[in-house]
Amino acid sequence: MSINEISSRVENDRVLILERIFDAPRDLVFKMFKEPEHLKHWWGPNGWELPVCHIDFRSGGVWHFCMKCMDQNQGDYYGMESWGKAIYKDIIEPETIIYTDYFSDAEGNINENMPSTEVTLEFIDLDGKTKLVNRAEYVSAEALKTVMDMGMLQGITETWNRLEEHLNEIK
User: How many other C-beta atoms lie within 10 A of the C-beta of residue 55?
Assistant: First the structure.
C-alpha cells in the first residue's frame, strides 16, 4: 500500500476495515482526532464544515458534532446538517481510540432508525509515518449496506484526503 492510498475490505459481511498511511508522526495523527481545533479543519467530505464540535476526550466521554454542507455546487445537500454523537469506550494514547458512533440530533438524542457503528481506530507507527486502521463493525450486513449506499466510502476517502492536507499544513 502506498502513501495516501486508502484500502478497504469487508469481513464477516458486517465489518468494514479501512487503512491508509499518512506521512506524519503517530503522535500528530492521533492529536488530529482528539482536538476540536484540528477536527474542524478536516472532518467531513469535501464541501462540508464542522460548525459544532464538542469533545470530552476520555473513556465514557462524548463527542457531539454537526457537519454542514457549505458547497453550493452540491445541490440539494447545500445547507444540510448531519449531526453525530460518539461515545468513547477506550482511549490509549497514541495507539487506539474505540467508540460507538451514532447519528443524532442537535440536542444529542440518538437516532435509533439509523445504524450505529462500533469503531476502533488504530494508529501504527511506521518510522515517522502512521498507518491508520479504521475498523467499523455494524450490527448486520444490511446496516453496513445502508451506510455504504449513503456514499460512506467516498465520504471517508475525501475526509482522509482533507486530513492529509491539514497534516501537511501544520507539520
Answer: 17
